[in-house]
Hints:
Layout (H helix, E strand, L loop, with lengths): L8 H7 L11 E4 L6 E8 L2 E8 L10 H14 L5 E5 L4 E5 L4 E2 L10 H13 L10 H15 L11 H11 L7 E3 L8 E3 L4 E3 L6 E3 L1 H11 L4 H12 L4 H28 L6 H16 L4 H7 L5
Antiparallel strand pairs: 1-2, 2-3, 3-5, 4-5, 6-8, 7-10, 8-9
Helix pairs in contact: 3-7, 4-8, 6-7, 6-8, 7-8, 8-9, 8-10
Amino acid sequence: MSVFSLDHPQLHDLFDQIPALSGQPRELEELSGGLTNRNVKVTTPDGVFVARCTDSNADVLDIDRDAEHRNTQAAEAAGVGAPVVDYRADLGIMVIGFIDGTTLTNEDFGRDGVVRRVAEGCHVLHAGPRFVGEFNMFERQRGYLTTCQNAGYNMPPDYHDHVEKFDQIRKALVPQDGGTVPCNNDLLAGNFVDDGTKVWLIDYEYSGNNDACFELGNVWSECQLTLDQLEELVTGYYGQALRNKVARARLQGIVSKYGWTLWGCIQDAVSPLDFDFWDWAMQRYDSAVAEMNGPDFTRLLAEVQLSD
């Protein structure tokens, strides 16, 4: 899919096989983002849609497209996901409704009300129908590590130097584990659409039931929030200031950075996109290492054990 230009006959042939997009004039527009898929905005007389066209690296990245489809439907039912119009696994295309709003950037989190609406959006998703499948970054990291080692992909040379602290986080998170909720697990700024009233959550490639604090910590990590913004996010989500939840979200954010580093290493080796995945990976790795070696690390391991 990704090699086709918007006017390529084969792309139009594929869209002609989808009832909502066929048999009428179409205006196509490439949407930004999509490091493992291609998003095409399709405007027709009957409506505006987004065709999510998948690439060929889903298996090595452990992406289940059928689960993505079903979880996107669950997010729609929860009230924060785009409507699912069609899904054609044989064509590698899922069609969703276009959400009219502003796709967030990291800088937007500094605007009044954005962090609060993001917290509310996460809470609504997490209170919705259970997702298909589980997501645990400790398990995902082990799988990505095996992939990198078996294939000989380039990795940070000192990656293994931090395994002990990574395991310390894993052990510290267990006693206060409150179970799992349906999570997106990949909420970078571009996966939030703000319509001014509420924030919608899109892109469920890595979705699965997970610790709510992983979602919040991943938002902190991917959207480069300050620690004050992390506290605002966690407080908005839980409705009160809780030291253990702030600590848990921050620790899960470190887990996110350390684990997604290997995702970037795999993409650096296999992706055909003209994108600097190595730099993407190293940004997360350097940040994770700085957190694990930072002055707050020991305190976070203690505070996550507290009852408030």
